[in-house]
């Protein structure tokens, strides 16, 4: 049983604390992504799980055993790094089997495990090549092969795809998801790419400055961000944010020149931030519209057209159907989709109203 449990796990370098008491319970077989901006502590956390970094406070358990003081090699986890560090003079087969050889595994067993990993990763024809004769994606597979042959109870990935081009990243993303389905092992995956986190993981943990900002299923994070940080981090293009105030009776939110009758549980007059994703602002008739604005910039993507325009004093992005003819300077009658709005306390940044609640 490879559950991974963190209880108040902390990390300090000298007087500087970088990880602040993380509590996280990862289930056996679960795929968890740790995501957040550069420097938020993703790698540090992963390296503490792997045993490559000492834990300054709290408890880390793998299965039902506390492993704070257990050597990396005895933790039964395998890590795949961004920089695969393959040995250039060895063949693919030798690279994959090298860790086992160092552990004095017998040669026949190594050969079997290498063959099995190569089959899983579909790199059998490459076993006799050297790393210099492989593409980036193939090298990444070899790095995963090295982890697979160890048959660990958990896989730890630290930005394994960031050296690959955009197309290959998407392909390898599918590959990692397939592998997880096949092997069913507990997986902790670090990335700064929110799309990668949302598409791969059962559960996503969003970190900022060594603290968890929110954790949950991908769609929950998208639909019910707990605070401004998560709201702006998840989703591309970013959620549009407008400044507003709560009306006297609490029955609505007043933006610059726009009144939205959405009930909010907040002090009348309190400043709020109103969030609307590009798909939460719809094209409508002049009569139905909350506002009328002009197209400033548009990007036809084929599947959608992204339109930049000024709304309530802020530049916003609106997602339109590609069938809508759009031209620069054209008038747009727009309406906020009341069911898809998010309201945050402007001071604390915390969510005030559930987006799902109807007006
Ligand atoms: N050896 C060290 N000594 C002092 N501070 C460190 C050390 N290693 C990391 N840090 C600090 O700890 C914080 C977290 O670093 P970490 O490498 O975990 O970030 P990250 O989220 O993986 O970022 P990135 O996306 O850039 O890889 C950073 O502020 C970093 O400067
Ligand atoms: Mg990192």
Kindly summarize this structure in a few lines.
With 359 residues, this protein is an alpha+beta fold. It has eight helices and 21 strands. A six-stranded mixed beta sheet has the order 6-7-8-3-9-10, with helices on both faces. A six-stranded antiparallel beta sheet has the order 13-12-11-14-20-21. A five-stranded antiparallel beta sheet has the order 15-19-16-17-18, with no helix packed on it.
Labels describing this entry:
globular; binds magnesium ion; binds adenosine-5'-triphosphate; Rossmann fold; alpha+beta; 359 residues; six-stranded antiparallel sheet; OB fold (Dihydrolipoamide Acetyltransferase, E2P); single chain; 8 helices
Shape annotation: globular
Task: Return Rg in Å.
Answer: 25 Å
CATH topology of the largest domain: Rossmann fold
CATH H level of the largest domain: which superfamily? P-loop containing nucleotide triphosphate hydrolases
Q: What letter string, H or E per element, gives the SSE order?
A: EEEHEEEHHHEHEHEEHHEEEEEEEEEEE
């Amino acid at each position: 049983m490879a559950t991974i449990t963190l209880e108040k796990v902390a990390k300090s370098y000298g007087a500087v604390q970088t990880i602040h008491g993380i509590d996280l319970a990862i289930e056996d077989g679960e795929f968890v992504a740790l995501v957040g901006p550069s420097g938020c502590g993703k790698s540090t956390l992963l390296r503490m799980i792997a045993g490559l970094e000492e834990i300054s406070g709290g408890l880390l358990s793998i299965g039902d055993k506390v492993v704070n003081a257990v050597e990396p090699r005895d933790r039964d986890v395998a890590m795949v790094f961004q920089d695969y560090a393959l040995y250039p003079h060895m063949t693919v087969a030798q690279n994959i089997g090298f860790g086992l050889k160092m552990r004095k595994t017998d040669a026949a067993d190594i050969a079997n495990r290498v063959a099995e990993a190569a089959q899983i990763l579909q790199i059998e024809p490459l076993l006799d090549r050297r790393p210099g004769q492989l593409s980036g994606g193939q090298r990444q597979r070899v790095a995963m092969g090295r982890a697979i042959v160890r048959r660990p109870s958990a896989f730890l990935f630290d930005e394994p795809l960031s050296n690959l081009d955009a197309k290959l990243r998407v392909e390898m993303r599918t590959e990692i998801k397939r592998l997880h389905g096949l092997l069913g092992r507990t997986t902790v995956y670090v990335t700064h790419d929110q799309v990668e986190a949302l598409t791969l993981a059962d559960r996503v943990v969003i970190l900022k400055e060594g603290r968890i900002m929110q954790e949950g299923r991908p769609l929950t994070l998208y639909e019910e961000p707990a605070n401004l940080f998560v709201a702006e981090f998840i989703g591309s293009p970013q959620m549009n944010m407008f400044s507003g105030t709560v009306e006297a009776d609490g029955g609505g939110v007043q933006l610059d020149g726009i009144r939205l009758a959405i009930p909010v549980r907040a002090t009348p007059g309190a400043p709020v931030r109103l969030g609307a994703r590009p798909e939460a602002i719809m094209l409508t008739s002049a009569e139905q519209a909350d506002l009328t604005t002009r197209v400033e910039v548009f990007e036809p993507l084929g599947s959608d057209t992204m339109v930049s325009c000024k709304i309530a004093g802020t530049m916003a992005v609106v997602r339109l159907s590609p069938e809508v003819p759009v031209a620069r300077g054209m008038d747009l009658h727009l309406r906020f989709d009341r069911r898809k709005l998010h309201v945050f306390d402007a001071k604390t940044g915390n969510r005030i109203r559930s987006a799902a609640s109807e007006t």
